[in-house]
Amino acid sequence: MPQAVPYLRARIVAAPFFLAAMVGNGAFRGFQDTKTPLFVGLLANCLNLILYPSLIFGLKMGIKGAGVAMATGQTCAGVALLALLVRTKKLRLKDLRKLPRPGEIFPLLRTGCVLSIRTLSIFSTISYATATAARLGTVEVAAFEIGRQIFALFARLLDAISVAAQSLVALALGKGDYSLARRTANRILQIGVAMGTGFVALLMLTVNSAPNIFTSNPAVRQMVSTTFPFMAFVQPINGLVFVFDGIYTAGRRFTSLSGAIFIAACTASSFLYFVRANVMPLQYVWVGLNIMMVLRASLLGLVYLTKWSPVPRPKYQPKGVGNGVA
């Protein structure tokens, strides 16, 4: 706890700039520009790579240095994205001086509250899984954290096609071309499954070598290797899940999206409670997380096939698809 305080104090300074960076990312994506946020993100991460060792070890700031490094990178990213929005005339500074009207804020608050359910459901389930692994022992929680980092890496890669789905499907829906939106969504779903299948092969090929990158502890290495199959074979499902997230976001079906995730998270948490109560092995913790992903894909997939889909099939194409929160 004493170590966490200086780290959090350093990080909290950058909170407004982190939010500005998130808004900037979303704004550029809305303009079909994914290159600018990527370039800014790469520069910010390169800055972090320089600052981390320099502050932590060079200036001997320790954990506080890590917080300062992260805060500096986030601040630079936020300022850069806002400056680029102004420079490209996508944002006018005089508009920032005007307070938004309540009628303009309410739809954003409504959508934000609905999406908060999605975010809280996911992170609370992952946190509960971490706590369950921690109760099993130090080796188990270390192995779980390594697996979680690998899982998160693949999630970031899959998130790229989620962004593509958000942008391209929304563009087609905005033009009123629902057939194009459906074809685009189907093709990106295929790409998501293909990427997930590639991750399966990668994980299974590196089952014995990848753990060595993270730890020199033989027990932890062995434990990580035993969980690789549980992480691997759910990856094609993860590909579907991330693309569905993008499709439902493009169609503004936030309630459907959050509802499916809430049900999946509650089911997974119930299973994790059973695992925790019966002190079951670490592999079952991953089974619990996989349950969440499989249920998310199943529920969103079922809706996708009906007339309530954000991009319905030709016979289900009512007017106004993609407008409002459904």
From TrEMBL:
It comes from Chondrus crispus (Carrageen Irish moss). It is found in: Membrane. GO terms for cellular component: membrane. Pfam families: MatE (PF01554). The keyword Membrane applies. Its main location: membrane. The chain crosses the membrane at residues 12-31, 38-59, 65-86, 185-207, 227-247, 254-275, 281-305. This is Uncharacterized protein. Belongs to the multi antimicrobial extrusion (MATE) (TC 2.A.66.1) family. NCBIfam families: matE. It is a multi-pass membrane protein. InterPro entries: DinF-like (IPR044644), MATE_fam (IPR002528). The lineage of its organism: Eukaryota, Rhodophyta, Florideophyceae, Rhodymeniophycidae, Gigartinales. GO terms for molecular function: antiporter activity; xenobiotic transmembrane transporter activity. Keywords: Membrane, Transmembrane, Transmembrane helix.
